[in-house]
Amino acid sequence: MKPLRVTAAALTAVLFAAGCSGTSNDDQAQANPAPTDGTLTVGLLGDIGQPPDPDIYYANNGLAIVLNTYEGLVQYEDNVDTVKIAPRLATTWEVSADKKVYTFHLREGVKFHDGTAFTSAAVKTSLQRRTDVKGGAAYMTAGVQSVDTTDPATAVVTLKEGNAAFLDYLASPFGPKMISPDALAKNKGSDNAQTYLTTHDIGSGPYELSAVQTGTKYSLTQFAGYWGTKSPFTKVELPVYNDSSALELAFDKGDVSAIVAALPSSDLKKYESSGAVDSYLLPTLQSALVTLNPSGTFFKTAEARLAFLQSLDREKLIPQVLGNRSEVATTLYAKGMIPGGADKQEINYKPEVLKAYAATLPAGSTMTIGYATGNPNAQQLATIVAAQMATLNIKATAQGYPTAQVFDWVNDPAKGPDAFFDGNNGPDGGNPYMWGHVFWDKSGGINYFGCDDPAVDADLDKAVLTGDNDLFVAAATKYAAAGCYLNFSYNKDWVVTQKWLTGVAESHNIGANELNFAKLGIKS
């Protein structure tokens, strides 16, 4: 995943699912035919929590709306397991040697949902609005000095200083999306169209936001004037389920076509062994994470924080809780983000370190281990670890917190728990800066407790100018020494679909836990 990122973010809502329904695979397959009315139904677990405004929305759950109603200049390439920039509304681009000037050649024949043509003027308007509304991802455009729109088919973006991550900013699922300048001007109001965009969109994507029933359902309708590929689905329904038992039951009955990143790992075996549905484990940049609160009593010192992190038996916990969608993380950044794994994570399982430290604590020492309400994987991890603390005479409690409260801790870290387990989260994009900035800089959005080292921030800010991997590694190493953070596991995106749905892998990219509905189809 970020302020507010349910990020980074920021957290994908997942709850304990119900057990098997008892329906046989053959019976279920017969009961779940493909729709004949052109409607695709994708279940959401928990409401999206924010309006689907691309410059405000900063959460995983609900990106399905943003990414199917809006488009950026570039994106990450679909259906590959590495970070690769691909065209979207820009067909080609050039970058100056000093990484200050980015020249984009724009796709012709693109129309916004209000019928106006996409030109370089929209690039200028879109980047400026991102800066003006000052949302969590405003840092992506804060460095823009000017946008030359002299040629309607070419946008020349000049930055205040070099930025090796700028293309990743634009490719990010949370990156700037192109909006209609005319629609923005018409509906700007007093808040730069933020109110309007709670129930409408002004993008160019394959679908339009056609209905909003907050907390109940969101509806998308296929945009007839879309320039690209169109699926057979003329309508997409996104019903909201408040617990995974109901979502899973709806899927098993065939009322839901697909579930994306919304079921707990405990359901993996059920669906992977079912011949009636398809189960996909797709590449992401995401991880399970552990963050510790230096503002609380228990983890005031780096000694205490590092001792706790070394007490976590990831080789045992990950298979037990997260299953085969996850593996032990060995690097400080996302998997493969630094070539050769030079950012090696040196936190290894040494329970004797915490045992020795615990022996020095006063009797009755307490600890609260938090997790996001509705995240069963994180809840199970927190519960297991809390029980382990009891063997050291530390009274630990596992406690759930609503997402809005989680993202408010940075304003007063003392209100937060001592530790927080994040079952699945990730960077804004594929550049190391987009990991380090959001997780380690206190202004980044997913540094929940504001644990900050100015030297780390300085290294990151310097590294992003040129893309210097040595500086990125230096920043990571310094931050790891503070003991506020552990990259717990590398995670994959788990998608389950009805057997008739095609194009799932082809519609997915490493940057987002969502699908491009325009690339989906029905098996003939």
From TrEMBL:
<dbReference type="InterPro" id="IPR000914">
    <property type="entry name" value="SBP_5_dom"/>
</dbReference>
<keyword id="KW-0732">Signal</keyword>
<dbReference type="InterPro" id="IPR030678">
    <property type="entry name" value="Peptide/Ni-bd"/>
</dbReference>
<dbReference type="InterPro" id="IPR039424">
    <property type="entry name" value="SBP_5"/>
</dbReference>
<dbReference type="Pfam" id="PF00496">
    <property type="entry name" value="SBP_bac_5"/>
</dbReference>
<keyword id="KW-0813">Transport</keyword>
<protein>
    <recommendedName>
        <fullName>Solute-binding protein family 5 domain-containing protein</fullName>
    </recommendedName>
</protein>
<feature type="domain" description="Solute-binding protein family 5">
    <location>
        <begin position="84"/>
        <end position="433"/>
    </location>
</feature>
<feature type="signal peptide">
    <location>
        <begin position="1"/>
        <end position="26"/>
    </location>
</feature>
<comment type="similarity">
    <text>Belongs to the bacterial solute-binding protein 5 family.</text>
</comment>
<dbReference type="InterPro" id="IPR023765">
    <property type="entry name" value="SBP_5_CS"/>
</dbReference>
